[in-house]
Amino acid sequence: MDSNTQNSHKFSWSGHNGTIRRVVVSNDNKFVITGGEDGTIKIWDKLSGVLVRTILASRNFVYHMVVSNDQQFIATGQGNSFSVFEFNSGKLLYTKLVASFIVAVLFTPDSKSLVVATEDDSIVQWDITGEKIINVFDQPGRGRGTKYHILTFFSNISTLKWLMKVLNIQIANKKITKLDISSDGNYMLVGGDSLLVLWDIKKNKIIRKFSGPAYNYMNGGIRFFPKSQKFLVSTYENIVIRDFKGKTIGVPITQYADGCVWSMKISPDEQFLLATVSDHYPVIWNLNTGVLVSISSYSYWLQDVCFTPDGREYGIVGQFPPFFRNFTNDTIVKHFEGLMNTIRSIEQSSDYRQFLIHQSALADNYTRVCDYLTMDAKTFKLETICRNDIEAHTSISNGTLFTINSGNKLREVWDKSTRQKKFAFPKADSSEPSQMTISPDGMFVLIEERDSVQLFSSNGSFVQQLPRDGSWIEYRATYSATGTYLALSGLRYGLPSMVDGKTLERLTELQFPKNERIEVESEIKFLAFSPDEKILAAGRGSGVVYVWDTETGNIRHILQGSELTRVTCSPDNQYIMGSHADKSASIWRLSDGALLKTLALPQVGDPEFTIDPEYRVWKWMEWAFFVP
Asked: Model's pTM, two decimal places?
């Protein structure tokens, strides 16, 4: 464990939370647009690296992302839906559901339409407004006629599947895997399942079909040349240049081209090919000779590459923040430090004054690096306290102590004031889940395992133990503000338990509606006491929040929301808030359970300074917190 990292950490709340999957440079070379596994699109000023706008595109990954040539629109594809946003405002224009998984989303070069391909052989060209279909391209031998294409108009996927069953419409085996449109907008290449089809887009006519061993396993896809009538085909054996008749041009590329090619981009002058190979090598070849020009090690999960419009620089994204290199001398031109972080958890102290942040990333040697940072809730000032190579669970006291726990790897209590480890508990005997929770005053540490709940002083002295019957699935413990009460959750067929925070003596028995059951998939996971300790709130994964009176154990309210990631009460004892997986947050009034407000993810500027002025809520990704 390294504690000398306070001056080495670069961090920005404006970055993606996780791997970046797509990168595009705007045609005017002023903006870098990135799409991430956190479901957001971010637009950055290329010169300064400042975040211009955040667009919440999906609650899941952004699989596909394209920018129209006129820089008016951004389109994304994720799962069974695609969306179109205004570039300048980030406003969502529309989202449409389709019948199968989307494999490609591309604007036509005139920016007036959008082509969407799905893995069941559906290729549809939409008007940019999304109000009408311009063309439907039926793959050879796979056309399903009008009945199938009616399905693309439905806005509800369950209705889609029901209608398909009623009409006896069968989805074909997965076929389409790659698609590209020529720079003049006249041609389209569609590939998959050992078949490549060249289309005349405007006439909706197949020009030529290519098949055979040379087109097997087009793993890296297909790519038109920017200016001339030829294209690239990447298979597991090589990368070949072909003309529109299928004739091979030049020498096939074989060196480092027989791995898994994730992304291919041709330089604007058509002289070079930039690609990702085996998910961690950016590679450049000379297209005239097929000779390897350069290869460099990135790390795991290299996802995408791009050229700037003038071809002088190229960008790389993936597990690390994006950087741009000079194409001529391969020096780094711009490194977007802080553009990406992977936040594993954010814990807030019960007095609302500080946060403990657990961030992880991969180092250049492919090892895991985890930083543990504290942040002041008023100033948002960050301090890196320590670093290790282990992903862990954390908890924080109101003072200077916090815990780091990974069960059978380490169990430690740290002091942020000294940046030193105070005490190390014995490691767990197995790799089964466990949890450590420190009391608000930092005097006690609770360790939860399958067979027992044990209470220790923070210097390791044993205090008390409760037997566990093995019915806990997830271990979650929450102390009340003074540490008087301790709530334990994660029971398979029961309720949260309230015990004395210093002795583990069982206290008030919590009541539960007789007509409701706690299922494994929606068990009670998230707990929060009100600061005055009169209320205990508990959230189920399904989105239901129960509010109990701690003195009587009676339920005061049952609140309804979407899938939860966190529950908390306000410092003034007036409100309860649920953070949701869709990156929104709901605020209810504690007195009567009325829903007062729903907060969305900040869309513009740096989210770290976005505080809701009415309820004093700081919102970031799927987390939301009340702040002083």
From this structure: 0.74
